[in-house]
Specification:
mainly alpha; 4 helices; 0% strand; single chain; 96 residues
Length: 96
Amino acid sequence: MLALQEFGLSTDSKLVAKKAFSIFVKALENNTTTYEKVSQKIYEMAFEPNIFIPDEQAENQMMSFWDSLDVANDGIYGNPVEIKMEMLAFLKQYES
């Protein structure tokens, strides 16, 4: 995650998170990554010592998508398509 600080060489962790979210949105829309990978990355970002979150309100959701998608993909609970749509909308809400 230290590499995330290279986004514009910013020391503002909120700005770094927003830029990362923007990259995630583009990658998902261009099918160059998966929702599973992005959900894991935003989960990890929330637990970074420097706390890479775009806004305090976003932290809980950042921690929830990875588990929710995993459980839905396993057919245990939830709809993976709906979770992916929610996650994309969430990322777009907080991107730079």
